[in-house]
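Lecture 7, part 2: worked example. A protein chain together with calcium ion.
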Amino acid sequence: KANGRNDFAGFEDEMDALLRNRHRLETDLREALGANDQIEVYYQPIYCARTETLNGFEALLRWHHPARGPISPEFFIPIAEEAGIIGDLGQFVLRQACEAAMRWPDQTMAVNVSILELQDMDYVQKLAAVLAATGLAPERLELEVTETAMLTAGTCEENLKAIRMMGIRVALDDFGTGFSSLGRLTRIDVDRIKIDKTFVHGFDQSSNDKAMVRAIVELAHATRLAITAEGVENRAQMEFLREIGCDLLQGFYYAKPAPAAEIDALLAK
Ligand code: C2E
Ligand code: CA
Ligand code: CA
Ligand code: CA
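Predicted complex, written out as structure tokens:
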């Protein structure tokens, strides 16, 4: 029967397997980035709450692993960060997204940026190079960063300042899931906040989530910040967010993320 020692050996085997697995995925991800047919950018439409017209898109990475099938970015972005290839991955998304935006006039393009990319001293230069190469006007690009990036002094802070000076907008992603207090909102240098989907999904069960989101929208507007709500899945959520004056809405209720070719077809109609 299992004694303490055997249990521990079993645990070690499991850890070994996990690490090997992770190492394997890291190698696979490097290969995928070189091969260019496994990693693809999807685009999720974002709508104006008031007019219910299309306002733009958020670029979202997809990895179709040849053996394992689709792997979620929630899982492979951290691997890319640890493996030191997030910079290359970020440049790939940015380039694709700017090229797509050039085909989709009048639409805003939002791109997620990892804090590790923002800590790169050459990030702004690389960003400017992509805009120059694709011809995209900086006003049409919005970079989505998380709170940790907003609160990190040094290169990160300088890069964010330079990015906004270029005319590119910055959005604070996943708002409400981190550490910032509502009060801090008035002192943070961003153009928009994105309310995290966990709040929107809490509407049905909790009046607290509704009160919270209402307060965020009020405070944001008082400080001239625009607001996007993500994860809008049903009509009731949409109507509440509209009623309290949320500016943009994103979620499966409107549309799921889709390959560029689908958006090309949609806009050609
Ligand atoms: P995020 O930036 O918060 O992106 C929103 C996530 O919510 C996306 O998941 C999107 O597909 C999902 N979503 C949109 N509408 C709904 C809805 O109505 N209901 C539900 N349940 N989910 C909805 P996705 O595409 O799996 O991406 C997960 C996360 O991975 C992103 O969260 C972002 O943090 C990261 N990520 C994705 N692409 C990139 C990228 O190009 N660069 C970086 N650095 N991170 C990325
Ligand atoms: Ca985002
Ligand atoms: Ca989020
Ligand atoms: Ca996120």
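Residues 26 and 83 are 7 Å apart (CA to CA). The radius of gyration is 20 Å. Keep this in mind for problem set question 3.
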